[in-house]
User: Fold this.
Amino acid sequence: MARRSVFVSCLTCGSQLNYIITTPPLHADHEFPHDTLCIPFVRCCKVCLRLVTGILVALNLSVISLFGADPSGPRKTFNLSQREFWTTGNIHGTPDPPDPYTTENAFPKIQFFEPLSVGVVPGSNRFGVATRPGKIFTFEIRSDASEPQLLIDIEKTTYGLAFHPNFAKNGYFFVTYTHDPDFKIKNGNRLSRFQVKPGGGLVADKQSEQVIFEWQAGGHNGGCIRFGPDGYIYLATGDGRAIFDGLETGQNINDLLGAILRIDVDHLDGDRAYSIPADNPFIG
Assistant:
């Protein structure tokens, strides 16, 4: 009997196990006519192993029969030193043409560790780059640029960076990061505003942080931020879980998870450090 790879997944916790067995296992309530099986099961179910084995032996024979092979006859040998032509396939046409462009390293003298976000620094000829460990740099947009300048070190897992459209005047930039890596508190993700030191060049004051908004952490944290042409910040939030949409929030418009939020960071609303644009169709 042929050896087969079987992936068994638990419907209770989603865990997967990989088995190599001689007869592919099958839960009595399911049918899988494939050579490699992915079988859901409930960890606590009590299925008669003899019954399952009998079903799997029958499945194995049906798979062999499906492909027209005689389990009692000799197997066909293949010439591994010479490729056999595919003369009986149903593939038609030719491969796609090559891309009409090539890529090259625009800044070969600069390297960052785990960069996640990049954007133009308004009012300058510089890029700003946020790295996952929390260090944010700027550098001049030149092919021979070699010395990025540290803007700020958040010292937290950082996801997004966006400079205020009026950065040249107010020195504001916005960062998303996780301030609770162990997920012990409910709202472990944060959107904050920082400001460069007046007259100090592109160096930010960490004490200038103003927390704008917080949302639930859990692995899928989102964190991408951009300013739109309307002057509002667009923020992507995750679903608050690590493996799948465990909170079933991806299609839920009644919470702020698994969504793209649009907020006005230039005008406060009561005790909130932002306001919701009046034309938002989900309010009022």
About this structure: The first strand starts at residue 4 and ends at 10. The helical segments are 49-66, 167-170.
